């Protein structure tokens, strides 16, 4: 047996429940911002407005969790997709140079495009997984339940 308890879920956050419907709405807006293509900006605004809510600890914790998770997903997925774009365009760039394109164009296409496809698929998987987790967190915030984001863990709680 492992000495680590594998049955715990991310829902055991130290966040208390929301005090009012406005607190729940702040949590929904923080997490839902990624679903509506506004990551990073909205959680910062909610974080700055957290002292105005009845349960500021819940709102602050939810906004920090959303902000950190969105930052990790945006940077991770964006980095993978950016590197995929570099590998994909390498063959086109090398092919544009007359002598190098003739000698190394097929080789860069043979190596670069499969690497670009794998990295692009990995970036897409990270993005879709991040959106799914944000959808779950938005639903939990809507129901007023505390939720601890994966990767971020207890940071900000």
Salient structural properties:
157 residues, mainly alpha, 0% strand
Encode the helix/strand succession as letters: HHHH
* Overall SS class: mainly alpha
Mean of residue pLDDT? Answer: 83
* Count of individual helical segments: 4
Cα separation of the termini? 30 Å
Give start-end ranges of low-pLDDT stretches. Answer: 4-13
Radius of gyration: 21 Å
β-strand percent reads under 5%
What does the overall shape look like? rod-shaped
Helix percent band: 55-70%
Main beta sheet strand tally, sense and closure: none
Number of strands: 0
Task: Explain the overall architecture.
This protein has 157 residues and is mainly alpha-helical. 69% of the residues lie in helices and 0% in strands. The protein contains 4 helices and no strands. It has helices at residues 21-32, 41-49, 56-96, 98-143. It starts with 20 loop residues before the first helix and ends in a 14-residue tail after the last helix. Mean pLDDT is 83; it is low at 4-13.
Tell me briefly what this model is.
This protein has 157 residues and is an all-alpha fold.
């Amino acid at each position: 047996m492992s000495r680590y308890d594998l049955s715990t879920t991310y829902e055991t956050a130290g966040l208390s429940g929301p005090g009012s419907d406005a607190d729940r709405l702040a949590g929904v807006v923080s997490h839902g911002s990624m679903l509506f293509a506004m990551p990073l900006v909205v959680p910062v605004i909610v974080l700055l407005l957290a002292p105005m809510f009845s349960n500021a600890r819940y709102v602050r914790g939810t906004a920090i969790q959303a902000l950190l998770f969105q930052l990790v997903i945006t940077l991770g997925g964006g980095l993978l997709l950016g590197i995929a774009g570099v590998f994909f365009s390498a063959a086109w760039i090398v092919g544009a140079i007359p002598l190098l394109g003739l000698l190394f164009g097929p080789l860069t296409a043979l190596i670069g495009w499969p690497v670009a496809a794998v990295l692009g698929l990995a970036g897409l998987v990270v993005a879709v997984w991040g959106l799914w987790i944000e959808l779950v967190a938005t639903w939990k915030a809507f129901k007023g339940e505390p939720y601890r984001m994966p990767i971020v863990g207890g940071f900000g709680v």
